[in-house]
Amino acid sequence: MSVRITGGEFRGRVLQAPTGTHVRPTGDRNRQAIFNMLNAPRWLDDLMPGTDFDLDGAVVLDGFAGTGALGVEALSRGAAYAVFFEKDRAVAGLCRNNLESLKITDRTSLYVRDSTKPGTRPADVPPATLVFLDPPYRQGLVPRALGSLAAGGWMAPGAIAVLETENTVPADELVQSLSGVRILDERAYGLTLFRFVQYCG
User: Which contiguous run of DSSP H or E holds residue 4?
Assistant: First the structure.
């Protein structure tokens, strides 16, 4: 499966992707739809009047990074910094190759680590204002990762998280174990559901 950046500085660039089915990159069209929403000037303001979220200059965390497509797309479209978590060492190597080929290693940190066990954020890494969680389906990983990242200080108060799951997962299942998290919006694309939530800290 080819993975192509859909907008911004690196538009049209193709990322290395692993063979097989154990990694499921977010499709180009779905990724473009997500970022069209994040760039819409009235979308978040209508949901959260007075919000100061802005993709331009954002600090992004791409959990379950795989190819790194979501984090790279955000950098391509104006984010300032991106943190990537990928526990599979071989896949993390491909992600690193993608970052190196685009010459953006100075704007990124890559951890060979499980997003459900991220540890404590180092002081020299800024907390994320935008988080993407796109794990393997049917393993209950989204709420575990969201809780662990919050506990480890990886998310800034007010951060927006984009959660990708199969469309059969109830909304409250994703955030029931966390206080200070509210669901803002959701969009279905085929069998995939994207939920946008805010972490209030």
Answer: strand 3-4
Residues 148 and 118: their CA atoms lie apart, in Å, by 7
The two tokens of residue 9 are 């500085």
pLDDT tens-digit map of 39-63? 875 666 666 665 667 889 999 999 9
3-state secondary structure of 77: coil
Averaged pLDDT of the chain: 87
Q: Give buried/exposed letters for 169-192 (b at 16+ CB in 10 A, else e).
A: beeeebbeebeebeebeeeeeeeb
Q: What is the pLDDT of residue 121?
A: 97
Q: How far is CA 71 from CA 22, 138, 192, in A?
A: 19, 23, 19
The DSSP output letter for 31 is H
- What's the pTM value of the predicted model, to 2 decimals? 0.91
Please enumerate in sequence order all residues whose Cβ is within 8 A of that of 194, keeping only pairs 6 or more positions apart, or say none.
Answer: 30, 34, 162, 163, 164, 186, 187, 188
d(CA 95, CA 82): 12
